[in-house]
Amino acid sequence: MNMANLAILDSLKKNFALDPECSKILVVGLGHTGISVAHFLQKQGFKFAITDSRDKPPLKDAFFQEMPDTPLFTGGFDETAFKVATHLVVSPGVSLTEKSIVKAIASGVKIVSDIDLFACSVNVPIIAITGANGKSTVTMMLGEMAKSAGKKVGVGGNLGTPALELLDLNAELYVLELSSFQLERTSALKAAAATVLNVSADHLDRHEDIAHYAYEKQKVFSGNGVMVINIDDPIVNAMQETGRRLFTFSIRKNADFYIDHKDGVEYLMHKNDYLMSLAELPLEGRHNVANALAALALGTAIGLGQQVMCDVLKRFKGLDHRMQRVAEISGVTWVNDSKATNIGACVAALEGYDRKVILIAGGDAKGADMNELKPVIKEKAKSVVLMGKDAGLIEQALNNCVPVYSAKNMVEAVKICAGIAESGDSVLLSPACASIDQYKNYQDRGNQFSKAVLRLLA
Fold it and tell me: Which CATH superfamily is domain 3-112 in?
């Protein structure tokens, strides 16, 4: 065994009492994270089994081909497997309130996350990014900045490649997007720089309330790395810790990274330095200005040059399904923001417009209070087209503050919008809800929207 593997095993033993000789690990969830954990444990010589509540997890066949001798329990959580385990690695998609997991923890079984395993395996800086909205955008921005600065960088986590699969890169820097579900079961992360971009109601079907959600997000600041704080968000601003190195950002106030005017032009600022004009940012919406400031702050925290970072921002076109312009047809602009799977993301998208838009919203509200949408929709929407499982909840919350139309599916929603839109209008798909009531995922929802819009051209 090489020195690197010995160092990893030593760290795992020290932090979690994990030992290939005597630990029995149960990986809970056979998704992409679970598979990445299985590969890691196999490489390190651990004994493990996998369990999944589904009868036929999508990756089951591929797993059997790769690891035919590894025990796999499907179709419910097998109590015997949990009783034998000394450690559980629970995938983010599985709630820690599952009965079998609660009983296992009560009996002394240790919880370890894939991010814990990752953190114990690297000795180079990790940048950790979380928040209700914008984390994917900031993660990709910062990843591109690091690459342009000549760094060998691994980018992933909740976005794209699972963290443990990034280890094969032997990078000199890792940029991770982390969800609240990843953070709630993680204790070994000590990021060199980290941020909570914002906190708004999300995943309240899994978190008891917004205070608990914020508590889990705050774990991203574990350790003594640089804290990057959005002072426009009161919940995030309250997370500041005395004695820590700190960068602040704001689109409304003076901060370390902020917006200022000069000769009628708005600029991104770092203290007294004019970095670039807002007009040079290709992304739509003020929330993307905040994302750019956050990326600049994180990059500065790890020593990236400001010119390199600004050059990246000037050519950064954003992520698929996040404020993505699909087409302009007869003077009407159609925008795909299907990744807005919660209220905060929809609010941010609407607030980025200077004029009123036609909004398509709805889906699975995940237990969120739809009344929070009413003020911004009243101010920023000409009309709303609702679809999906919780369309009725949103209509009830809006209480006739704007005209509301109902659609059974995306094709019908786009047809309704085409019928009421006038030249100069924007039609925005920003659902404020998850997609799983009608679609495979938010990407599928966004693709269906784009297809329906492009049919209008025909």
Answer: NAD(P)-binding Rossmann-like Domain (3.40.50.720)
Would you call 445 helix, strand, or coil by DSSP?
helix
Please identify which of the residues 87, 135, 217, 339 carries the catalytic annotation.
135
Characterize the bridge pairing of strands 193-196 and 246-249. Answer: unpaired
Q: What is the C-alpha separation between 269 and 289, in angstroms, rounded? A: 11
**223 and 190 in contact (C-beta within 8 Å)?**
yes
In 3D, which of 90, 113, 112, 114 has the Cα closest to residue 100? 90
Name the CATH superfamily for 324-457.
Mur ligase, C-terminal domain (3.90.190.20)
Left (φ > 0), alpha (ψ -120 to 50) or beta: where does 209 sit?
beta
CA angle 291, 352, 370 (to 5 degrees): 100
Query: Which amino acid is it at 382?
Result: K
**How far apart (Å, rounded) are the C-alpha atoms in residues 195 and 131?**
8
Domain ranges of the chain: 3-112, 117-315, 324-457
Domain 117-315 in CATH: superfamily? Mur-like, catalytic domain (3.40.1190.10)
For residue range 130-189, what is the model confidence (pLDDT) as tens digits?
Answer: 998 889 999 999 999 999 999 999 999 998 899 999 998 989 999 999 998 999 999 999
Helix (H) or strand (E) holding 153: strand 153-157
Could you confirm whether 39 is annotated as catalytic? Answer: no
Per-residue pLDDT at 201 exceeds 70: no
pTM of the model: 0.81
Q: Say yes or no to pLDDT of 313 above 90.
A: yes
CA angle 240, 276, 278 (to 5 degrees): 85
- Separation of alpha carbons 198 and 444, rounded Å: 26
Q: What is the C-alpha R_g of the chain?
A: 23
Nearest of 285, 43, 286, 74 to residue 168 by alpha carbon: 43
The answer to whether residue 158 is catalytic is yes
Q: Which of 87, 133, 151, 158 is catalytic?
A: 158
Residue 103 is a catalytic residue: no
- 203, 321, 366, 380: the active-site residue: 203
HSE, side-chain direction, 13 A CA sphere, residue 453: 25
Q: 362: Cβ–Cβ under 8 A, 6 or more apart, which residues?
A: 386, 387, 388, 389, 390, 391, 394, 431, 432, 433
